[in-house]
Amino acid sequence: MEIFICENIKYLRKKAKMTQEELALEMGVSRQSLAKWENGESLPDVMNCVKISELFDISIDMLLNFSIEKNEETDGSTNGKYIFGITSLSDDGTVTLPENARQVFGINKGDTLVVMGDTAKGGIALAKIMGKGILGGKR
């Protein structure tokens, strides 16, 4: 299994237009530690992975297991398809959508979403309802 954390830290930092010094200061680590993470010489501990995921609003799963840069690069060539990370179902049935997914699709509190599924393929999807049809509009 390939781990992408090193390239993702560097990519996210540069995308945020931060220097290593600025990100290190924000995280409470040395610039040298951050440089080692980006170069693959060492890895951040679990608590620093949590800090990185919170700072850049991504899941730890996304930070570790997906190339964020490649996902964003392929956006235009794959007709706007994204991987936003992984979420889980809470005990009360609530699903929290990642912030970047809500931003990209303009999903706000009170919007109507429809849940669709395909049992043969084991897939499930959400779609935002636009307009004022039977399912459209805000509740």
Q: Main traits of this protein?
A:
2 strands; 41% helix; 139 residues; 7 helices; mainly alpha; Pemi-like Protein 1, Chain: D; two-stranded antiparallel sheet; 434 Repressor (Amino-terminal Domain)
Main β sheet profile: 2 strands, antiparallel
Give the overall average pLDDT.
83
Lateral arrangement of strands in the main beta sheet: 1-2
The CATH top-level class label of the largest domain: Mainly Alpha
CATH A-level architecture of the largest domain: Orthogonal Bundle
CATH superfamily placement of the largest domain: lambda repressor-like DNA-binding domains
N- to C-terminal distance:
44 Å
Could you tell me the CATH topology label of the largest domain: 434 Repressor (Amino-terminal Domain)
Order of helices and strands: HHHHHHHEE
**Compute the gyration radius: what is it?**
18 Å
Helical fraction: 40-55%
Overall description:
With 139 residues, the protein is mostly helical. It folds into two domains: 5-73, Orthogonal Bundle (434 Repressor (Amino-terminal Domain)), CATH 1.10.260; 87-139, Pemi-like Protein 1, Chain: D. Helix content is 41%, strand content 9%. The chain contains seven helices and two strands; from the N terminus they run αααααααββ. The chain has helices at residues 5-15, 20-27, 31-39, 46-55, 60-65, 68-73, 99-105, and strands at residues 113-118, 123-128. Strand 1 and strand 2 form a beta hairpin. The model is unreliable at 74-78 (pLDDT under 50).
